[in-house]
UniProtKB/TrEMBL annotation:
It comes from the Bacteria. The system is composed of three essential subunits: KdpA, KdpB and KdpC. Residues 88-105 have a biased composition (Polar residues). HAMAP family: KdpC. Residues 69-81 have a biased composition (Basic and acidic residues). It is a single-pass membrane protein. Coiled coil: none annotated. It holds the Pfam family KdpC. It is found in: Cell membrane. The keyword RNA-binding does not apply. Residues 58-109 are annotated as: Disordered. Keywords: ATP-binding, Cell membrane, Ion transport, Membrane, Nucleotide-binding, Potassium, Potassium transport, Transmembrane, Transmembrane helix, Transport. This is Potassium-transporting ATPase KdpC subunit. It comes from Kitasatospora cathayae.
């Protein structure tokens, strides 16, 4: 058998072996381990309510009122006062992509957006504009962050309590329950998972 043929056959065998090992055996092994050890996280940390999938605890989402005219693309969505609101998102919390606005600190557009959000949040929550937390005014880098600061969550308690006819103490306890500590114990700040919080609020009586 010519050398060139033997070389090609050897390469083909190596390709087939590596394809089976790396393309089939290894993925199946890792998938099996992940499903056995942490199935919930491996499947996207899905949040369910009444047996229905309502989101993921890893992805922020909008909590808006239904549109008056669903077919009108120009109609601006309005936040639902019965829910804790997430931080702004440059991509409208679209789960199929992520990204920031890429506006720098010297951008007039960013300054206007922050001022507009400050006024809107203050009016919506019935608070002094000067007390609105920074994360209520600026979007996260991914636009998908499900967390807000404890300060922003606490700011919204009275509004949600009034809309749902629930005691503010009950909601404050839920905020504390869904407050997560710093990453690795020292990175970043404490945050409240809005997706899990809103699910708990919807179930509260």
């Amino acid at each position: 058998m010519p050398t060139i043929v033997r070389t090609h056959l050897t390469a083909l065998r190596a390709l087939l072996v590596m394809t089976v090992l790396c393309g089939i055996a290894y993925p199946l092994l890792i998938t099996g381990i992940s499903q056995a050890v942490f199935s919930d996280k491996a499947n996207g940390s899905i949040v369910k309510a009444d047996g229905k999938e309502v989101g993921s605890s890893l992805l922020g989402q909008n909590y808006n009122l239904p549109k008056v005219n669903p077919d009108d693309p120009k109609e601006e969505p309005k936040p639902d006062p019965k829910f804790f609101q997430p931080r702004p998102s440059a991509n409208n919390h679209a789960g199929d992509n992520s990204g920031a606005s890429n506006l720098g600190p010297n951008s007039d557009d960013l300054l206007k957006a922050v001022n507009d959000r400050r006024a809107a949040v203050a009016a919506f929550d019935g608070v002094d504009p000067a007390s609105v937390p920074a994360d209520a005014l600026t979007a996260s880098g991914s636009g998908l962050d499900p967390h807000i600061s404890v300060a922003y969550a606490k700011e919204q308690v009275n509004r949600v309590a009034k809309e749902r006819s629930l005691p503010a103490d009950t909601l404050n306890q839920l905020v504390d329950k869904y407050t997560e500590g710093r990453s690795l114990g020292f990175l970043g700040q404490e945050g409240v998972n809005v997706v899990l919080l809103n699910k708990a609020v919807s179930e509260a009586k």
